[in-house]
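question for whoever is on the cluster today: can someone run the full assembly for these? two chains, 513 residues total. i dont have access anymore since they changed the login thing
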Amino acid sequence: MMVLQCKNVTKSYKKGVPVLKDFNLEVESGKIIGLLGPNGCGKSTLIKLISGLLQPDSGKITVCGEEIGEKSKALVSYLPERCYFSPSMKLRELVAFFSDFYTDFDAARAEALIKDLKIDINSNLKSLSKGTKEKVLLIMVMSRRARLYLLDEPIAGVDPAARDYILGTIVSNYDPEATIIITTHLITDIEQVLDEFVFLSYGGEILKTGNAEEARNESGKSLNELFKEVFR
Amino acid sequence: MIRKLLKYDFKEMMRFWLIAAITTAVLSVIGCGCANVVSCYQKYPEAIIILSWIFLAIVGLSYLAFSIVAIIIVFARFYKNLFTDEGYLTFTLPIKKITVLNSKIISGFSILFATSAVIFAEICLILHFVIIGGSPSDSSTGAIGIRIIWELINALVVDGYELAFSINALLVFLTSIAATLFKLLFIYVCITIGSIVAKKAKVAFAIAFYYIASSSFGTLMGILYTMVVPFLVERTTQISKGAGIAVGVLIFSAVFLTVLLGCAFCYAFLNKAIDRKLNLA
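^ ran it for u. tokens below:
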């Protein structure tokens, strides 16, 4: 089943300088896809367009056939680059907040994962370290039974141990029916979990796409090496 | 969904608002005693009277501070929840953007209205303890301030025009409520413009825009006032007092409708801007 469709999507922040130009992408369900590209190539812009934070200048995006709006947002679980919670919130309030707004949110799973981190559920978000906040953010996002997960740079700015935790949480909480799109430029760390990859260049041009395992087998190179070759 | 949004909006704003409201309430209760002391000044030593006056001034300042705190709470919530990192969560919730806007308007207006109501009630409470004649045994003790206001209102009523006067009073009340709503929406508009247009210092841009827009509007209204008032004075001096009240109904209706029109314009702008122009980059 087609989870995501982008048709001729153009988005620019400055007139005449499009970050994405006539961008087309179709994503099927049940895959973990790496949206890989250098800084400024439009990875985050695409994720924000799909999650409804940005408005495209032209073109159309649909999630499970729904145009971006109230219904599509109920199907998408979005992990932004930054922590978007009010620092004054307690973890318990955060779980209650997600339970209130997302019908697909599994509060018991979220509480269990928070407990695994050995954090008191009554602690305040502002009392947590940056790395722990990122883990909590990921727990909240992955505790939803969404159709499409958009993870924007989930391992950027965290230590290697935290990276392992994050990737482990993604893989262990992944519903095989759902699709995960991960953006990153830290390919080595993430390529082990990817089913497919998309190499995105400036202007949203897709330079190479395909199955990660097949690409590795055909070229005898890792995705990271392929990436360096393509963007040399 | 709006109920859930309102629940979180109120919960967040009430944390600080309740502290401020309780503080002014406590100060007002003590202020009642001070009001009683200063109105019975013959009974107490001069030092107590001076201290009471100082404390009453502090109570007055606390009302001002309470109003400022309420305004900051409302507009900070709007800005933070929509235009900072928190906006990433707000605008990815499975809710229509207009519902988010409606929630912010209802909660913001309720807080501002409740603040005015609390301050008004506390002032009435203090006035209740003002004693005319300086003696606690005086027959005119209690609710003096309220009674004076009521008598002043009654003096304005002209026999045979009670209905027109009541309509005028109702229109003034409704206009003041609509004006509060307009002020709220107008500042929301300024914050939204600041957040959409400015790349940096968005709050400073919003404040500058508010200052320029409200100054321009004030100047325009001033010019209109100096043109219209002499004309109205000339005309109304030629008609009876009762007819003047009836004319007042027309004028207040026009003012009320103008303010409502301003509210509708701001609401339409906010709806369009947040739905189509907002890009959380």
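summary bc i know u wont read the tokens: The first strand of chain A starts at residue 2 and ends at 14. Chain A has a mean pLDDT of 87.
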